[in-house]
Amino acid sequence: MNKKFKALTYIAAAALLLSSCTKPLEVPTPTPISSGSTGTTGTTGKTGTTGSTGKTGTTGTTGTTGKTGTTGTTGSATTPPVTPPTGSTVNVGDGKNGIVIDGKVTSYPAGTIIVVKAGTYNGGITVRNLTGVTIQGTGVILDGLNSTSAGFGNVLDLTNLTNVTITGISTINQGYRMVNINSRMVGLTLDKLTFTNCGQGIYLSGGGNLVWDGTDNTVNLLNLTISNSIFTNCGANELGGNIGNGQITNLIKNLTVSGNKFNGGNPGDILYCGVVDNFQIFNNTIANINANDNNDNRLFMMTGNGDAYNNTFNNYEGHAIGVWPLSFGSTVKTSHLTNNTCTNSRRYSAFEFQEFAAYAISGKTTKSDLVVSGNTCGNINTDHWTGYPGTFIDNYMFGYMGGKVTLTNNKGYNFFPAPVLNVLWNLAAPFLASGNTYSATL
What we know:
The protein is mainly β. The radius of gyration is 37 Å and the shape is globular.
């Protein structure tokens, strides 16, 4: 056989094999009769339930043709379940009019990236009823219309969000709140947002009074993150929470505040948390705060427990961090204020510790200790105010709940008045004080 004929033979065989793959499955050939010629095989039923085999022809010289098998019922097709796409991108907004992004109106599968069209919006952006999505607002500006009442609604308005990230949006010239949190939130991340000239900050404005029953299901703000954002000339961020009358309401748990820049304004407290279990405040820069405010402020005011570290405070008034310590449940937790830099404070000590007998609720709270270590604090009480000496800490450690303060390895310079006999605290002596240094200059 020559090569050309052999190749054609292979091609023809392949074509025949391919065409046979499209034919329905044939019914097996009936068994031949015992005498006479074999009856003709019954015709195969159509696709679906296989038709019954034709009867064998009767005995004779030649068996009669078997009856054709009945046509099989066509098999019903089963539609496979469709998995919603993940990671898709959806574009919303027209760049000028307020919009509502509502998961009950439009389905956004987890993993969806919702891109808001860039532009200056009059009417605000409402986000609600979403799970597992990201909202990108690069170039989106919410304009408060020169802080007039007409612009009060031009804000981020958030309700019922789970594991949602909002990023890139700017709010400017807002005379009221720049972000409204209207309900319980789980896993909300506010990242790379910009706020400029806003009267109030991120604000818990709704959700009622959720009473904590000891479980995460009754934590009002669970796993909230505020990160990499810029706050310029803005008011206080108030995340709510309260302890009193034997109960805890609107508890915050696992709060992360990191990589933010706070500059200018007279907010009093930059961030207020009435009850918080495990705050993590780190790598933030705070400058030029409360130039016209002489109150007893705490820039970060935390009632609860957690850690604050690697933050830089410069040119401000009030305590850089105030911790009114609590542990939630029966396990004693220790808070840490470490490696922070606090310079050029007009009034009050760098840190504050206070306890209150009313915060001891049987079965719900217990004491919490505080460690203040490795901080650098200089030029404290530059107003030369005589109300309270400038030093490392105002320590109200009076045994109301039994929490203890440890003050170690901190570096201080230029306090007013200069400390006497190396006493580097106000009020009660810490449980342990060691390794701290002080000098007139850096």
